[in-house]
Specification:
Layout lengths: L2 H20 L5 H28 L6 H19 L19 H15 L9 H28 L4 H27 L9 H20 L6 H19 L3
Length: 239
């Protein structure tokens, strides 16, 4: 990953969160459409690229680690309260306090999602496509996080700190992955396929939850269907 990619990954999330603090009304419909597009994009990338490449490593435990990643994300959502899907829950009773559980969950989630960006064996086209998908996923999450913290009347400096932490985690995950890939003799480097499988499981949980989320708004169902087709088409385009 280039320095510009790290900057883009960090800056897009940070600016989105800060912008959400300045705006009074966030269009929930278009946020969900953007989430649907990114969810379909990430799901298609897993099926078309990440899963085949990870299984090609020859490790027999890949399937188990994919399941472990899926379950890990399920556990993380007990603490994040579904912000990864754009859900916003207001907590007036916890105002002015640092939301440790939510930020820890989101930070670990973001860190692990950034790790595939440092995969040494992937091509530049796949890197760019995956970077785009993660940004498209993290931007609405950052907006939801900022909106939730602002509506919960959390102090402004705490809100900005939370956004900064969330924005920094994916680049840190990518950098960690690069270091593991370069240091072939490192203890963790030999388990790189298993780490990737764990991330794939997280991607699959997030994307499928977004895609199969139910709603009574038929207009949104139509928009979501179009967004899903567009996301899948964008992932197929890089084949």
């Amino acid at each position: 990953m280039s320095f510009f990619s790290y900057l883009l990954l960090f800056g897009s999330v940070l600016l989105s969160g800060l912008l959400a603090l300045r705006l009074k009304n966030i269009n929930a419909l278009w946020l969900k459409v953007l989430l649907a597009f990114s969810g379909a994009y990430l799901f298609a990338l897993c099926v078309l690229h990440l899963i085949p490449e990870t299984y090609s490593s020859g490790s027999r435990q890949i399937g188990l680690f994919i399941l472990a990643g899926f379950i890990l994300q399920l556990l993380l959502e007990f603490f994040s309260e579904g912000i990864e899907h754009g859900h916003i829950h207001i907590h007036k009773t916890h105002q002015h306090t640092f939301p440790f559980a939510i930020i820890f969950s989101l930070s670990l989630h973001s860190f692990l999602e950034g790790m595939p960006l440092g995969e040494p064996g992937s091509g530049q086209d796949l890197q760019n496509s995956l970077l785009t998908g993660i940004i498209l996923h993290h931007v609405p999450v950052a907006i939801a996080l900022a909106t939730m913290l602002n509506a919960s009347e959390v102090k402004r400096y705490i809100t900005i700190t939370c956004i900064l932490l969330f924005a920094a985690m994916a680049p840190l995950g990518a950098l960690t992955s690069v270091l593991l890939g370069e240091n072939k003799t490192g203890f963790l480097a030999q388990y790189y396929p298993e780490i990737m499988a764990l991330v794939i499981g997280i991607f699959l949980h997030i994307s499928t939850t977004i895609l199969f989320e139910s709603t009574e708004d038929h207009r949104f169902n139509y928009y979501r269907f179009v967004a899903i087709l567009a996301g899948v088409g964008a992932a197929i385009a890089i084949l």
